Amino acid sequence: MTSEETPEPREDENTAPEPATVHMGITYALGRVVITPLARLVYRPHIEGRANVPKSGPVIFASNHLSFIDSIAIPVAAPRPVHFLAKASYFEGPGFSGWAQREFFTAIGAIPVQRGAGQAALDALDQQRRLLDSGSAVALYPEGTRSLDGRLYKGRTGVAFLALQTGAPVVPVGLIGTDKVMPVGQRMPSLKHRITVRFGEPLDLAHHGPATSGRARRLATDDIMSAIHALSGQELAGAYNEVPPHGAIDRIKQALPHERR
């Protein structure tokens, strides 16, 4: 999700949700059977709290975000299949390298999505909601983008919106060491470091109120970030992790008041 405003929820009670694409076929099945144990063998992740993860039903993994490899670490460590949204460009490369990249992302549970604001952001929320409605698990990063300095930034309210809208419990995740295994800009992960994946107890956020309430979304988000902080032990940044603006329009958007997702 990006740093723009939280989209208004869609009120279309007469339309049944479209089925999510959660049956990934042979590639995903092989990924669970081959890639997961291989990654555990090679990187020897230290995993804590697996018993906190519900064995069935919808669940949202809400994690801190330090490295590209985070989206591999969570599915590898989780005791059940986990899906996450990835940039559509990862699935669109030409030739053999494009095919290999597409197969790899499919194998680890990634689902392509067009990222951005406006309609693209609404479509991403809808896709995540459909996954949860089908009883799947999804992984999301409330900070919105990777932390480049290792600190934990304030959470955006998109994760809380999905949790309150769908009733799915949120399992906070604390990742430690992924930024050492694969720092930003490094093309290949290192074998010198081990990572730790900590799954916290599920959070029921319904007591904060409905998803349509901005106050409920904010309070629920703060609960999620507090739980992540307790697991990761990171220094708190006390600010949002903003993507540097690339042009005049982007700078104007960041200057305007808006709710952070």
UniProtKB/TrEMBL annotation:
<dbReference type="GO" id="GO:0005886">
    <property type="term" value="C:plasma membrane"/>
</dbReference>
<dbReference type="GO" id="GO:0006654">
    <property type="term" value="P:phosphatidic acid biosynthetic process"/>
</dbReference>
<feature type="domain" description="Phospholipid/glycerol acyltransferase">
    <location>
        <begin position="59"/>
        <end position="178"/>
    </location>
</feature>
<dbReference type="InterPro" id="IPR002123">
    <property type="entry name" value="Plipid/glycerol_acylTrfase"/>
</dbReference>
<keyword id="KW-0012">Acyltransferase</keyword>
<feature type="region of interest" description="Disordered">
    <location>
        <begin position="1"/>
        <end position="21"/>
    </location>
</feature>
<keyword id="KW-0808">Transferase</keyword>
<protein>
    <submittedName>
        <fullName>1-acyl-sn-glycerol-3-phosphate acyltransferase</fullName>
        <ecNumber>2.3.1.51</ecNumber>
    </submittedName>
</protein>
<dbReference type="GO" id="GO:0003841">
    <property type="term" value="F:1-acylglycerol-3-phosphate O-acyltransferase activity"/>
</dbReference>
<dbReference type="Pfam" id="PF01553">
    <property type="entry name" value="Acyltransferase"/>
</dbReference>
